[in-house]
Amino acid sequence: MALRFLSARLAQQIDDELMSASGAFSLDQLMELAGLACAQTVSAVFGPKKYNRVLVCCGPGNQGGDGLVAARHLAMFGYKPTIYMPKPGSKDIYQRLHTQCKNLDIPTLQGDGDAAATLRNALGASDVILDAIFGFSFKGPIRAPFDTAMPLLSASGLPIVSVDIPSGWDVEEGNKDGVGLQPDVLVSLTAPKEGVRAFKGRHFLGGRFVPRTLEERHKLNLPPYPGHEQIVDITEIVQKL
């Protein structure tokens, strides 16, 4: 049976089930596993010798939290990540994840002052971008301060790895407005979303935390993960669908 693509409603339902009393996962756990999968994806495609400087772009929500976890793991993997926050998150979990990055001396740039100049300079000193700005709950239009950052990221010419869904894409209708990022690599979390059916780049799945009962109940038809990896390359699988 074919790998299932998730609607916004089903993706949210699965998240709710994972964090319910029966699923028993905490948000911290899911963020940690998602961020680790993202860091492994960067490492699998863009090795640290050539792509050592990773600009991790974090939005203020849970997607940004995944990015902060990924930044920490990338530092542990031998990369030199820099965090860019157009707008920092205010939740306690976000602040704690950011503190963990600070404890590893991972620099953070924020979208205050001359935000455009700050981002241009950061892009000039980076080898690859990890896009963790918007998640599957994104609804346009893109507002300040993200409306300044997004065009600069797109115009940078740097390879982009997007988390779960490229920033600016609708979870079900894809890049319908033509303003979203065009990543080279995508790491879908749990299962790919309907909006990325048209994505043609390298595609990974990160969701080795999904219980078999939940997978079977929702007919996700997930592929097996190799060895001890937290990711699996699904490029050929999704391109045949």
From TrEMBL:
Binds 1 potassium ion per subunit. Its cofactor is K(+). It comes from the Eukaryota. Residues 11-222 form the YjeF N-terminal domain. (6S)-NADPHX binds at residues 62-66, 135-141, 164. GO terms for cellular component: mitochondrion. This is NAD(P)H-hydrate epimerase. It comes from Mycena chlorophos.
